[in-house]
Amino acid sequence: MKKTLFEKIWESHQVTHLSEGVSLIYIDRHLVHEVTSPQAFEGLRLTGRKVRRPTLTFATMDHNVPTVDRMNIKDPISKAQIDQLRQNCKDFGITLFDLNDERQGIVHIIGPEMGLTLPGTTIVCGDSHTSTHGAFGALAFGIGTSEVEHVLATQCLPQTKPKTMKVEFTGKLTYPVTAKDLILKLIGTIGTAGGTGYVLEYTGEAIRSLSMEARMTVCNMSIEAGARAGLIAPDETTFQYLSSGNRSYAPKGKDLDKAIAYWKTLPSDLDASFDKTISIDASKVAPQVTWGTNPGMVMDVTGRVPDLDQVPGYSRKDVEQALHYMGLKPGTLLTDLKVDVVFIGSCTNARIEDLRASAAIFKGRKVASGVQVMIVPGSQQIRHQAEAEGLDKLFIEAGCEWRQSGCSMCLAMNPDQLTPGQRCASTSNRNFEGRQGKGGRTHLVSPQMASAAAIAGHFVDIRTWK
Amino acid sequence: MTPFKKITGIIAPLDSSNVDTDQVIPKQFLKSIKRTGFGESLFFDWRYLADGSPDPQFTLNDPAFKGASILITRNNFGCGSSREHAVWAIKQYGFDVVIAPCKQNGDVNIPAFADIFRNNSAKNSLLTIELLEKEVDQIFREVQAHKGLAATIDLETQKIILHTAPEISFSFEIAPAVKKRLLEGLDDIGISLQYETAITSFESGHNAQLSLPGSNGTKSI
After folding, report:
1. S-S: A238 plus which of A80, A234, A250, A414, CB 3.0-4.6 Å?
2. Is the model's pLDDT at B218 over the cut of 60?
3. If pLDDT is split at 50, 70 and 90, which confidence band does B219 have?
């Protein structure tokens, strides 16, 4: 029988069948961070259970971490949560990439960076953006704290088999339209619940030509389309990424050869059937900007803020509430919207290629007067790489703030927050009400679009940038 | 987990679709390392004014819905972040049931609840019920016409009974395994640990480090 990539991974990780449509699935990697794990470890202590496979469990702190003086956490509750993670890792024998470790960073950035993320594996984390790792052809999805405890105790999870959706991006993507625009376009097309119950597999010419980092941007936002996991079949780009750089956990030598031979068997068989298929012509995708309060409220940068009755999939009330929160009037050109803050960071767009793309826009230019620009690398390694390339100086000369790594203003759990009414061009993944700070107004864009907005002081069509 | 049997309580309406978990409980409350104390912060940004007093415009602050244990809302509830704190907040506020509609979009059926939220709910005795859009519309109309209306939710028989005159009832579907777990209050981890032998046997033939199935002889890590 012809099988999809998803089916191959699912079948090779089934420990046993539990009930109609439900299997016990083995987990190869469990990534842990400070926010969603304390209650899980507490649960283990209360029941006297141990971590079944500490060597398959890896932890770091990223959500609460300050991006200025990271070793001096002023918020006592944030500090207590970080201290608790240290204690839990010590008590249960789990590898921790602590704040003073050069490998620390956003959990979904450091996993791939260190070679922990491999094709054909199952990966979970108490974080919805675990879908990022699907870029390697790993079945990776976010879980809640009860499930974190479950994986710690059993290295398995009871899972209902999801349906499969093939998302084909045909044609060529033309720079400066990016992976971010592709995924935003998809979310705008199928809606924020269009992928609920599915695993998405991204295919097509436009996906094949993307770098690993850009593929991670696509898979990262699968959850914003409602899908817990997104997948991209491993290919030469994947093997090249895993064979190069300092990927200490990736296989080497003969193990690598053996692994690559196996990884080559993973792509979906020709004519394998999917429960649903959708096709988008990548060559026709324009730079995207969100205008509302969820990522499905998105349009081409050339558009105007919609009328209340003009948005397919949303009621008049939904649109009215969104426009009221965002302080927008129907008919306004998106390119007329002035920004107060620009955030370049997050597990969506804070890898070295994102920073290089941003730097290319900032080079020799200045941030518009009154605009605050924060550049937050996704990991300490990325920070050092950027500094080695002189990007930090370039950003600082342009008037940007160069920060330490962490989740930062993507969810604003640390001190990096918008104040009420501030409008932000953000390379992150969620424009929910209050996400970047109570009353803050978020517009999701690519790093190129965010950088251009920082210089112009308002959104611009990056295709016209000179 | 506490078993879920049958409850009777007031229905509170939250007439918004795509309610994300950032709205259910904002990030500043996720710093706690405890499993309790989240009810106060449920829907924080909608529920309280800048000075910290309850916003009279927000439905849950209407005295008619005080003590409500059933929340009725719109499609795609619980989307976004995986934070289980959202479920803890809903439960600890006093809700035992959330009802939302699946949405027909052409031939596509969009589920009422986001996947991770639905899973998290089932681990915490919070019953999520998916109804048809027209059924949810009807409940909204009844609740608006009779503020403080109560309903009985019977998981055993999979029925919702609105205590209108005359009573109106709806049936709902639920996966048999989830129903059993909720009714019996089973410990999920305990269930998986019953398969200890199967897990150990699987591990012996699976190299988790490289995820190479059937590669016996590779050293265990």
Report:
1. A234
2. no
3. very low
CA A102 to chain centre: 21
Average pLDDT over residues A263-270: 97
May I ask the CATH class of domain A5-276? alpha beta
Which chain A positions have a beta carbon within 8 Å of B33's beta carbon? 38-39, 42, 80-81, 84
Which pair of tokens denotes residue A432? 């929910």
Choose which CATH entry (3.30.360.10, 3.30.499.10, 3.50.30.10, 3.40.50.150) describes domain A289-464.
3.30.499.10
Residue of B nearest to A28 (CA): B208
Q: Which residues pair with B110 in a beta bridge?
A: B103
Domains A5-276 and A289-464 share a fold: yes
Q: Which of B23, B176, B212 sits opposite A258 (nearest CB)?
A: B212
pLDDT digit string (tens) for A310-367? 999 899 999 999 999 999 999 999 999 999 999 999 999 999 999 999 999 999 999 9
Among the partner-chain residues A144, A294, A433, the one whose CB lies closest to the CB of B82 is A144
Domain ranges of chain A: 5-276, 289-464
* Contact criterion met (CB below 8 Å) for A107 and A85: no
Kindly determine whether residue A128 and residue B75, on different chains, have CB atoms separated by under 8 Å: no
Give the 3-state secondary structure of residue A5.
Answer: helix
Q: Give how far B157 is from chain A: nearest CA, Å.
A: 20
A257 to chain B: closest CA residue: B210
Query: Which chain B residue's Cα is nearest to A22?
Result: B177
- pLDDT tens string A171-227: 999 999 999 999 999 999 999 999 999 999 999 999 999 999 999 999 999 999 999
Interchain CB distance below 8 Å, A413 and B30: yes
Mean pLDDT over A24-30 rounds to 97
- Contact at CB, B208 and A18, closer than 8 angstroms: no
Helix (H, G, I), strand (E, B) or coil at A165: strand
Contact A448, A456 (CB under 8 A): no
CB contact under 8 A, A22 and B84: no
State the Cα–Cα distance between residues A373 and A354, nearest whole angstrom.
Answer: 15
User: Which pLDDT band holds residue A252 (cuts at 50, 70, 90)?
Assistant: very high
Instruction: Evaluate whether A397 touches A416 at the Cβ level (below 8 Å).
Output: no
Rounded CA-CA distance B11/B148 in Å is 7
Residue A333 pairs in a beta bridge with A304
Could you give the domains of chain B?
Answer: 6-186 (3.20.19.10), 187-221 (no CATH)
Residues of B in Cβ contact (< 8 Å) with A315 = 17
CB distance B23–A434 less than 8 Å?
A: yes
Distance from CA of B193 to the nearest CA of A (A): 7
